Structure formats: C-alpha cells, structure tokens
UniProtKB/TrEMBL annotation:
Keywords: Membrane, Transmembrane, Transmembrane helix, Transport
Domain Major facilitator superfamily (MFS) profile, first and last residues per copy: 10-459
Originating species: Urochloa decumbens
Protein's recorded name: Major facilitator superfamily (MFS) profile domain-containing protein
One GO CC term, this protein: membrane
C-alpha cells in the first residue's frame, strides 16, 4: 500500500518522541552549570547529574525493549511518555540536589525508550525506501537538539533552570492526547498470532492511504526451536483464529522471558550480528559524544597547555547552535544520498573511516579555521553513521526480539557515552591531546572494520 497518509501520521508521532528524547539529552549541557552555581555544588556533583541520566537511559533502553516485544509497542509508547513527561515536570520543582538527582534518573529511564519509537515507525515503512524514511525520521533528533539549545538560550537568560526543565517536558505532554489513535504494529500482532487485530490495522492503513488492501489472508508462522520460520499452508492457519490456539500461543509468550530473548539473540543465526552490533553501538556512541566534547574542550585545553596559544576556538552560543544544526543536517543529507544506493554496510563503513580521517590531523595542534573544518566533517560523518546504524539494527532482528535486541545494543551504546568523557576531558585536561585523538581513531577504525564484517545487507530486504 506504499507510504501514505497513515505512515505520515505514525512518522509525526514517533518523530515527536525523538524530539522529546533529544531535548532531554541536550538539556544536560545547560542544566549542570546553572544548578552548580545556584546550589554551590562541586564539579563531581555536577558531573553526576549527567551520569545518572545516562545510567537511567541504559536501564530504560533494555527494559523498554523487552516490554515492547512482550506486551506491545503501544504499551511502551504510553508508559515511557507518562514517565518522561510527569517526572520531567516534577524535577522542575525539586527542593534540593538529591531530589533532582533521583527524578532525573527516572527521566533517563523514560527517555531510554527512544529506540522503540524508531522500531515502531520502521515496522510500518515499505522495504524499498525504508532507508530514506529513517534518515528523514532522524531529522527529528536534530530538531529537538536545536529546539532545546534555542530554548535554553532564551529561558536561562530571562527566567531560571526550573522553567527550562518544565518547558522541555512539553513535547511528551503533547503526545498523550493523541495516544488513543496510535496503531499497534501489525508485525508485532502477527508475531503474537493476533491476526484479527493486525488485519484491522491494515484496513485502517488502506483507508487512510486510499489504497486497496491486497487479496489474501494473514497466516501465523510459528517458530521452531532452531529459530527458523515454519512455513505452514494457508488453509491451516486462516484469519479466523480458534480460541484454543490463541490461548496456547499466549501461554507460550508469557513463559518466555529475558533469558529466552538473550538465547535467541545469541543463537547461531543471530550471534555474529548481535556481537558486532554491540561493539558498533558502543563505538558510535563513544565517538558521537566524544566529538561533541572535543568541540567544547579543545579551546580551553590549548589555552592551558600551549604557551604560545597556537589556536583558540572561541564560539558564541549562537554559532554553536548554528553549527550543531548545520553539521547534523549535513550528516543526514549524506546518509540519505548513500543509504539506499550503496547499502547499509558500505555506507556505515565509509562514514566511520571518513570520520576517522577528519580527526586524524588533530593529533597535532592546528589553526582555528582548519580545526573547525575538521570537526565539522567529523560531526557530519558521525551523525550520518549513527543514523544508519539506528536503521540497520531493527532490520537485522525478527519481530519477536526486535525491540529487545535493539534495546540491549542501545544500552551498551550508552556505556560508550559514559566512558568517553574520561578520554575527551580527562586526557585533554592533562595535556595529552595526541593520545586522546588516537583513542578515538582506534575506536572508529575498529567500528569501520566491524561494519564490513556484518553478515547481512538489509537494503531492500523485508523485515523478518
């Protein structure tokens, strides 16, 4: 039935979820310094405020993925939105540092559901142009980043950080009134043998897109112990599901848990993809947040470490916001042009190696213009590579463990986000710029090799 009005509405809803996540992550850049100044916090307490959010996102990424595969995508869309919006708003009323710390941790858990929004959207998109639409979907992250930066620029100068927290929770509140019309993923419904509800969703899609529902019936294909798909004749499992059969399937689903999901992710068919995805998600997150920190840290480092001040990167806030937008847009355009042409693996590999090449000259001090150009290219390639990785992972896994698989990989990626400041800030602050850049080079180089080793290319391939 193609990509029509129905998918556009799903895109708008899921995209707003990513706007909310991007705003909460970007918020960390502005919250720490103002709270530290108001409550006289130590630098360690300021850092902990960001760390607890990432810790919450790590837990949330795995937890929401498992809940999504077991109880449905819509369940996660509702619960995570309620958690993020409610506690995000309450954190604006925090009376002290400890209360703020606890509330932001739970906001991090809610924000960890971002990958479920992405998987839910992709399960409605036709295979032929799934890459292009995922890139378009990723643009919502850029919108959220720029929106939060602009909001902070205005609010912090006129009001206070409490208003910033409250206003940053608004995108999640906007989602709540529209939840009732959001459809469950028909792929999830089919995987759980709920064919009548899956057909109802497809009929809604046909009506919205003004297209004819194809002839035929939905059939349920059970999974064997060898993780292969059992192809049964159409007349064995027609659209009319017997109550007994439905009960048996639900019983089997209820008995499956985290252990079974992990067993399937590490089964013979998926083990190589899973282990490589874990590493690439870690490396991608490590590099993505690391390059952002390099941009803000290099100027201070070179003032303190270089007696002749070889260069300085002095950017006004407005220029920083503009550069964030331009580099993100450049990365998305780059990935959009390549992902459905060269394929997922080749594009990810090329972007990882290109990011590595842009960072290479920074092992030595460079002049301001050259450094800015190199960081621009590195951020653009890093954004593009991360975008395609978020597309590739849901395409690799079957519906029954898609959100769990992507959730675990995303959680491992968050570890990279936590570890990278030790390199980007720690090594740079101790005047070891060359060592810091070489660590990023090594991680990106290994990530590029890992992309080459992915066992499957998913371009144009139907989701399992």
């Amino acid at each position: 039935m193609g990509f029509g009005k129905f998918q556009a509405l799903v895109l708008a809803y899921a995209g707003m979820g990513w706007v909310a996540e991007a705003m909460e992550v970007m918020l960390l850049s502005f919250l720490g310094p103002v709270v530290r100044e108001e409550w006289n916090l130590s630098p360690q307490d300021e850092s902990l405020l960001s760390s607890v959010v990432f810790a919450g996102m790590l837990i949330g990424a795995f937890t929401w993925g498992f809940i999504s595969d077991r109880y449905g995508r819509r369940t996660v869309l509702l619960l995570s939105t309620l958690l993020t919006s409610g506690l995000g708003f309450l954190s604006a009323l925090s009376p002290n540092y400890l209360c703020l710390l606890v509330l932001r941790f739970f906001v991090g858990i809610g924000v960890g559901s971002g990958h479920v929004f992405a998987s839910w959207f992709l399960e409605f998109v036709p295979a032929g142009n799934r890459g292009t639409w995922m890139v378009i979907f990723s643009f919502f992250w850029t919108i959220g980043t720029v929106l939060e930066a602009s909001l902070a620029w205005i609010v912090l100068s006129a009001l206070s950080w409490r208003w910033l927290l409250a206003l940053s929770a608004l995108p999640c509140f906007i989602l709540l009134p529209f939840f009732r019309i959001t459809p469950e993923s028909p792929r999830y419904l089919c995987a759980h043998n709920r064919m009548s509800k899956a057909t109802a969703v497809l009929e809604r899609m046909a009506n919205a897109n003004q297209a004819a529902l194809p002839q035929g019936v939905l059939t349920y294909h059970g999974e064997t112990k060898t993780d292969s798909i059992t192809r049964t004749p159409e007349d064995e499992h027609l659209i009319s599901i017997r109550e007994k059969e439905h009960t048996v399937v639900n019983a089997l689903c209820s008995q499956s848990g985290v252990t079974d999901a992990l067993r399937k992710l590490l089964s013979h068919n998926l083990r190589r993809s899973t282990l490589l995805l874990w590493f690439v998600f870690y490396a991608s997150s490590f590099a993505y947040y690391g390059i952002a920190l390099l941009t803000s840290q290099l100027s201070d480092v070179n003032r303190s470490c270089s007696s002749d001040l070889i260069f300085e990167l002095q950017q006004k806030d407005g220029n920083l916001y503009k550069d964030t937008f331009i580099t993100s847009l450049a990365g998305l355009i780059l990935s959009a042009l390549l992902v459905d042409w060269f394929g997922r693996k080749a594009t990810m590999c090329c972007l990882m190696f290109a990011c590595c090449a842009f960072l290479g000259p920074l092992v030595l001090h460079q002049n301001e213009l050259f450094t800015t150009t190199l960081l621009f290219g590195a951020r653009a390639c890093g954004t593009g590579g991360t975008t395609i990785l978020c597309l590739y992972a849901p395409e690799v896994y079957p519906t029954s463990v898609r959100s769990t698989g992507v959730g675990i990989a995303t959680a491992i990626g968050k570890i990279g986000g936590v570890v990278c400041p030790l390199v980007a800030v720690g090594m740079l602050r101790s005047c070891h710029q060359m060592a810091a850049i070489l660590v990023f080079e090594l991680v990106l180089l290994l990530a590029g090799v890992a992309c080459i080793l992915f066992p499957v290319e998913t371009k144009g391939r139907e989701m399992d």
